[in-house]
UniProtKB/TrEMBL annotation:
GO terms for molecular function: DNA-binding transcription factor activity; transcription cis-regulatory region binding. Keywords: DNA-binding, Transcription, Transcription regulation. PANTHER family: HTH-TYPE TRANSCRIPTIONAL REGULATOR BETI (PTHR30055:SF234), HTH-TYPE TRANSCRIPTIONAL REGULATOR RUTR (PTHR30055). This is HTH tetR-type domain-containing protein. SUPFAM superfamilies: Homeodomain-like (SSF46689). It comes from the Bacteria. The keyword DNA-binding applies. The keyword DNA-binding applies. It comes from Dietzia psychralcaliphila. Residues 5-65 form the HTH tetR-type domain.
Amino acid sequence: MDRWGRTHEALRHAGWTLFAERGYDATSTAEIAERAGVSEMTLFRHFPTKERVLLADQFDPSMAAAVRARPADEHAMRAVAEGIRQSWSQMSAEDVESTRDRLRIIAEARTLRGGIERNNEETVAALERALVARGAGHPQARVAATAVVAGLSTALLDWARSDETTLHAALQSALDTLGGV
């Protein structure tokens, strides 16, 4: 990993650790930068806002690639649901726990409500482009991607708040519903 990547990961790790310890709203960007051993200006070169430290979604590229690889004649909603199912099924146990921890922080932070929607727009755009690449029209692609991301976000936040189910079970249920199974 190059210097940029190491710094980026150090900032993300410092942020996630502090958010878990103190809560998102009680953690400042200066504290994140200090914990990572860099200046606050460096933090903002990597993450334009504090919310991006927590909300930047590392799964968008793999989900979009999985959607693009779905059969061209498959309905857009089903293609998105199945592409996401395939992408998320490859998560390691460590990624699952990290995702639950991160989503719990997000679910508990009142000030992130608008940030979640802004972050989801990036995911919707990536999935929309994937659907268009497989031949869907723009309006159909946008509607399908938006519907699946909204439903999946709800399911994931519910899963993060509870210890009663596994990620696999929560995803299966949500994606079955969204994909019309």
